[in-house]
Amino acid sequence: MSLKKQTFTGIIWTFADTFFVRGFSFVTMILLARWIGPTDFGLIGMIAVFIAVGKTLTDSGLTSSLIRTKKPSQADFSTVFFVNIAMSLIVFFVIFTAAPVIADFFGYPILIDIIRVYCVVFIITAFSAVQLAILNKDMKFKKITKINLPSTLIGSAVGLYLGFNGYGVWSIVWMFLTIESIKASLLWLASSWKPKAIFSKAKFKYHYNFGYKLLLSGLLDTVFKNIYNVLIGKFFSAQTLGYYERSKQFSEYPSATLTGVIGSVTYPMLSKIQDDSERLERVYRKLIRISFFVIAPLMLGAAAVAEPLFLLILGKEWLPAVLFFQILSLAMMLYPIHAYNLNILKVYGRSDLFLKLEIIKKSITTIAVIVAFQFDVLGLVWASVFTSFAALGVNMFYASKLIKYSIPEQMKDLVVTLFIALLMAVAMNTAVQVLSDTARLIQIAVATIIGISSYLGMNYVIKSSPLHQAILLLKSRNL
Known about the structure:
Layout: H1 3-59, H2 62-68, H3 74-106, H4 111-118, H5 121-126, H6 129-137, H7 141-164, H8 169-190, H9 201-225, H10 227-235, H11 238-272, H12 277-304, H13 306-313, H14 321-332, H15 335-347, H16 351-372, H17 376-400, H18 407-434, H19 440-461, H20 466-475
Helix pairs in contact: 1-3, 1-4, 1-7, 1-8, 1-9, 1-10, 1-11, 2-6, 2-9, 3-4, 3-9, 7-8, 9-16, 11-12, 11-14, 11-15, 12-14, 12-18, 12-20, 13-19, 14-17, 15-17, 16-17, 18-19
């Protein structure tokens, strides 16, 4: 199978995975939000940073090293497997022990039990991390989809049952534990690889030398990505954090979904052509332009219809979250560009640059948070937008050192799409305001039709638009 066909097949199956699996999860969380309310979601938001840090420590960046390794052996896989298991047990013990301290910090005793149950997920995911890495490396996304689908359906059913019957925050905890448990079991059954009693110091050193910089970068990113949760949870109410957490999750969903679909396929694909710099640069440029062509109107359009959208799917109880969502959508619009710039560093094995730029970006975030904290919770939300734009510049600068795609060239490729998407969003919001006395579904439907038609129409007129590039890419035989 050609690389192009393999890539597009992967994108199709990853899209199916996203549409059915993550889409079902998204709908499940909407229903749970209506049933259990902002406060319980705020409790999950309080521990999000500790769960995310635990997952990052458990993996230690080693599975990313496996994916980029050209011909890994049984010694590579088994060594990484046993390191992951050992790390998961250590992380579980540390967070389990620290649960009372965390609960006392936020002032919610119930967090002790929530943390101690939830952190079992570290051990569960560690048992199947290598199997998942192998499937990703081999671009077997069809098999991954077939594993994710039943896991999510069963886990979501458990969450919905518990949420409907009044279990509150525990419905979320048990839903995710069920999903990860079933997924890990299916990955073991589906994978032809099984660990052997092999531990190679040389292999560990090789993967660690690449992975530890990704680990440190991941820790920095995780901590600072969740710093807003910590500050809002500590100095404001659990309900306010619930509004913020749901807004962040809703704004992340379309952006992270697109990035996940394309990124999970293109990282191993770009790794395969890492020695052909001219081809890699050409593919990367197309990737950036087409991704932004999709995500910019999606995020700005969602922000334009946010009020009737929230009222329709969540209810009046969640109306204070609308403004949070609209602001955060501006930051998440850039998420795919961040991710693909960072992928270039990983493809070239430059985890040292990866770590360096994370330190720079987090220094910017620290200053922004200190300043923004003086302006209440909205100041913190706007700070995330500022840091997202600042981080984009840093990511572009370092990626441009490795490929012939400078910052001015990247900005030139993005600015036309951004301008058209902004015009589209204005038209959509105007439609919502004009139809404010009509049913919410009608407001959303009319605004969406206006948005799609105006966006595609303006892009079609501009011949240099990514729309034409996407059409040509589909017609061509090569990437």
